[in-house]
Design a protein that fits this description.
Blueprint lengths: L1 H32 L4 E10 L4 E8 L20 E8 L3 E8 L4 E7 L3 E7 L9
Parallel strand pairs: 1-6
Antiparallel strand pairs: 1-3, 2-4, 4-5
Length: 128
């Protein structure tokens, strides 16, 4: 009987240790992915020959774009625009729409200052 109680105690101890390990692991994963919202300075440098008419933000891993960040105020060729945005994730996808309705995009790590320089040879998605 004593041996059977010892085996039961060992099983219960193992189960408890496993449960604590799983809970701690889940908490660590949650903390890694639940970054607090931070205000970020985003600078768009338009070194292309095209006007950028809209700028959208999306989580890096999908295409759920938010509202136009330029509020219908285009960035002319050779111009720079600085915006303050609030972002909760560790990276952000920036999507610009040019005068032809084509899209340019890049993914950036979120730091206190993000800069995206759009060059004339930047690849565009024109839906073809």
């Amino acid at each position: 009987m004593k041996t059977q109680n010892t085996i039961l105690n060992l099983r219960n101890t193992f189960r408890l240790a496993l449960m604590v390990t799983l809970i701690c692991s889940m908490g660590t994963v949650f903390l890694l992915y639940a970054a607090p919202a931070q205000t970020v300075t985003l600078t768009i440098v338009n070194n292309s020959s095209r006007e950028i008419r809209a700028l959208y933000l999306s989580p890096a891993e999908n295409d759920n774009w938010g509202a136009d960040q330029l509020n219908e105020s285009a960035i002319s060729p050779g111009a720079t625009r600085t915006l303050n945005i609030t972002w909760e994730q560790s990276s952000v996808k920036l999507v610009g729409e040019d005068q032809d309705g084509c899209f340019l995009s890049t993914t950036k790590s979120v730091t206190s200052n993000i800069e995206w320089t759009i060059a004339s040879d930047a690849p565009r998605n024109c839906g073809n």
